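Look over both lines:
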Amino acid sequence: MLLFDSFRGRLRSIRGRALALTLALLLPPLLAGCGGGDSASFGSSGGGSDSVRLVQQPWADLVVENRIASDILTELGYSPSVQDVSVPLGAQALSTGKADAYLGNWWPSQKPVYGKLIDDGSVAVTGTLLTGTQYAPGIPGATAKKLGITSLADLAAHGDAFKHEILGIEPGSPGNQYILDAIKKNAYGLGKWKLVQSSTEAMLAEVTRRVAKDEPVVFLAWRPHWMVVKWDVTFLADPQKVWPGAGQIRVLTRSGLKKDDPNLARFLSQITIDPATASEWIDAYDNKKQSAEKIASSWMADHPEVVKKWLTGVKTVSGEDGAAAVVGS
């Protein structure tokens, strides 16, 4: 088996160039629909001949997934780069050909952002990375038992206890928008409530603080994630069907990628993980404070058979066997 240490140096230089770009430089070009970032990632419709431009939100599992994908792609001879953007801006980048792939399409929760783009063919569904997800407002299990709350319909009666607040994540996230829509429509009597938007990290920190003080809190929750185990999260039922939930995480690519590079499309379509693995990555990244680089290299070294499966029928840029190039024969 080949050791993965040999190509970490090259990955650092690639990622360094991408991460050196400030969000201030990236967002205006993307909003204008003409690309952003460096020329190798968002500056042109097609990018370099062997470039692979990935987009992500700062979600721990997605960050690790992109790191693993980048490690593998580099060993295959590609030049990967990763850009942090909001969900809507990532969709715009994919649909206009300024990005190549997105490994974090929570479905159907992201349908308002990606549905039309998928339907009109400007974005393609290339694979299903994970199944068995949950995504909805939730509360710690201890609070659910204490207050007798199991549904969104139960919240309004306990508004004062929850400070009439629902904690959300990054602005622009579809999950936040569903909550805002519910508040606007006064669904479940939540018209006087407010959504506190911040970031995933800030939301989890605030939930941790309130749980430690035994204060009721309702927040945007999802599985896979360590929060489900740590707080015994009760995902709130939705009898009015205002919340779409989520059943899977999919891989999306720009229109034409499969035609332009069927080898790359094949690799992306074959990446699959299970919820337990994703939760382990999230725990290692968020709680154990391990770098995505360390998590990726350790996991790849410990799971060569999984990597081989992802690389079934995949070649290097020079036409050699991909599995042999990455993990050996």
